[in-house]
Design brief:
The complex is a heterodimer of chains A (114) and B (238). Chain A is α/β, with parallel strands linked by helices and 114 residues long. Chain A has a four-stranded parallel sheet with strand order 2-1-3-4, with helices on both faces. In chain A, β1, α1 and β2 form a beta-alpha-beta unit. The radius of gyration of chain A is 13 Å and the shape is globular. With 238 residues, chain B is mainly beta. In chain B, β7 and β8 form a beta hairpin. The two termini of chain B are 17 Å apart. Classes of the chains: A alpha/beta (114), B mainly beta (238). Chains A and B meet through α1 and α4 of A and β5 of B.
Amino acid sequence: MKSMNSRTNILVLNRNEGILEVILRLINNHENWHGVGQSELNNLAHLLIKGHFDLLLIGSGFSPAEEQEIVKTSNELNPGIKIVHHWGGGSGLLTNEILAALEGVEGGNYEIMT
Amino acid sequence: MTNTVLHKSETRGHANHGWLNSHHTFSFANYYNPERMHFGVLRVLNDDIVAEARGFGTHPHDNMEIISIPLEGDLEHKDSMGNTTVIKEGDIQVMSAGTGIYHSEYNKNKDQAVKFLQIWVFPNKKNVTPRYDQITLDVNDRHNKLQQILSPNTDDAGVWIYQDAWFHMGNFDKGLTATYDVKKKGNGVYTFVLKGSFNIAGFEVNQRDGFGIWDTDQFELEATTEDAQILLMEVPMG
């Protein structure tokens, strides 16, 4: 269990760069959350090796095969990372998805990936 | 065995931003209740009131089926696909957000608030090409019967979405009944009373209450007040 004041590091992947920008802004507006993201996967392994992430949000634009590869790579390089889909592309579900994932709430996400 | 859940109106999440007064049946934005996350693939049911000439500025969505049902007033829609339209009571609007869409929704009225339902359904297909549609329904076709307003089928009544979901609306005189037959085995039905009260499968369901029922093939509803109005949303449960 993380303490109230510890920072939650969140990695966001979304092929839609405009939506990625919005999601990162929303995350980084939260005092205890820090988000980084990218729209392509070529740098994913480097990011996962360089930093520790508590949560990975997979947004739109990736094929099922790419999503499988994202999950595999993330679990290998960042054991314990929670991986969930981000649905809706904005503020509506974002906070809910992050809180539910961190708390392990069943049914908090349509497609729990780990 | 049939399962049910009753969400009383007063237990909904509530956010009043001045220009927007919204009640959330399920967790949304800053309302987070782990016990109220969804009913099957129905994820959002917001009961929104937007002040005169105010609204939601341009913002994005992806991978979600977003349905808006105006209840009072006129809502002006603009989106990144070039659509500029107005929806009003009796209309239904649908967006498949897919790979990404930007839109705004404003109250076009200068003299009255606009009231509408905002409903989000998880899609059964991700990353589709974004699409927008709206239709005008004949509200007379829902007097003392259930009128289909949404389905998964492009050639069926109402709008269509990327999900095995069927929505119906009905306006009933007191004492009138209807039987709802579940369209797809395994689906559940979430009912939302817009006006008045109903007895649904033996449960008293009042205005703005939500009542979900699943593991059943059909159920009965009866209007227990005059001019009672209801929305039924049949959705996959998982």
